[in-house]
Design brief:
With 326 residues, this protein is of the alpha/beta class. 29% of the residues lie in helices and 23% in strands. It contains 9 helices and 13 strands. Helix 1 crosses helix 7 and helix 8 crosses helix 9.
Length: 326
């Protein structure tokens, strides 16, 4: 069957307001004078994945709920300007939005507006089925209403990936995503025993590959019961912001995976993309391009050993460096 799309992204479209702060955590004060100012731009987890795989040359389509509001206009403009097809489903609650406090070292604290969703929100079943039938792969963001689309994707036969972000390994909200995906990404930040959680996902769900990103410690790759450590890649420029690095890692990994590369090579692509994302100011939504990623992958210090022998992962508390959450 001929497909029109390489990666169908479901969910995670929204707008962030970026506020640079002198330090995190931010001490209480009546007021702060901040530089370089406050900027609102389109770009949340699904947007970063869509932009990332598109920049790597993969045919991309995104579907999500948007509101008839200024935030929705920013998202629509982003996809129009980048030439990425976007299927919009109306949300009466409005477009998802968040405020990101960004510290001088690039770490961030995100405040999500939880009023921008409704329990009744759904992606139309016929639309999801049609898009899935025309796609090679679906990446599902853990935002409502994407959980309801998971059975439809399974019926279509398309492979599925998801990112659990900073799951604690216990919150039941994440489980449908963790157990329905063939490829699972998650941050080790909130996990007491990352290896146990990764192995549990693989044992109870469909995942053939589980990737745990661990900030400055690199990433951990579980494939067929074998756990490997994938080191970080030195960013090509100073680290200015960690926002979207986990999504960039996922995009780089998917680029390799859909191209038939072995999982270790895919993880190195992810590390390169994640490192690049850390050099992009939080006020922009840009991704590494295919030629740049492949050039970096060919450099001797990057193209060397793809991974070390298994090492027990430890929770990352700083959550900064080349590979962090999205």
């Amino acid at each position: 069957m001929t497909t029109e799309t390489d990666v169908l992204v479901l969910g995670g479209a929204g707008v962030d307001t970026i506020v640079h702060v002198p330090e995190l955590p931010l001490p209480y004060a009546d007021s702060y004078m901040i530089q370089p100012g406050i900027v609102t731009r389109a770009g949340q987890s699904g947007d970063f994945v869509a932009l990332g795989v598109s920049a790597l040359g993969l045919r991309t389509h995104h579907i999500d709920v948007l509101g008839a509001d200024p935030e929705g206009d920013l998202v629509r403009a982003l996809y129009r300007d980048r030439g990425i097809p976007f299927t919009e489903v109306h949300s009466a609650a409005g477009t998802k939005r968040a405020v990101n406090l960004v510290g001088p070292d690039g770490r961030r604290l995100s405040l999500y507006d939880d009023t921008r969703s409704q329990e009744t929100d759904r992606l139309p079943e016929d639309t999801v089925r049609a898009l899935a039938a025309a796609s090679r792969h679906a990446h599902v963001v853990i935002t409502h209403p994407c959980a309801h689309a998971l059975p439809l994707l399974r019926e279509s036969g398309v492979t599925v990936s998801t990112d659990l972000h900073d799951w604690d390994g216990a919150n039941p909200y994440h489980e449908p995503f963790a157990l329905a995906a063939d490829l699972v990404f998650l941050s080790t930040t909130a996990l007491a025993d990352p290896e146990h959680t990764m192995r549990d996902i693989a044992a109870r769900g469909r995942a053939r590959i589980v990737v745990g990103t661990a900030g400055a410690e690199g990433a951990y790759l579980l494939v067929e019961g074998h756990l490997s450590h994938v080191p970080t890649v030195t960013p090509p420029a100073p680290v200015v912001d960690s926002n979207g690095a986990g999504d960039a890692f996922a995009a780089g990994f998917l680029f390799g995976w859909l191209g038939g590369a072995d999982p270790l090579r895919c993880a190195r692509y992810g590390a390169i993309a994640g490192a690049h994302a850390c050099t992009v100011p939080s006020t922009r939504a840009d991704a590494v391009r295919r030629d740049e990623l492949l050039a970096r992958a060919a450099e001797p210090d990057v193209a060397g050993p793809a991974a070390t022998e298994p090492v027990a992962p430890e929770p990352d508390v700083a959550e900064q460096g080349a590979v962090v959450r999205g």
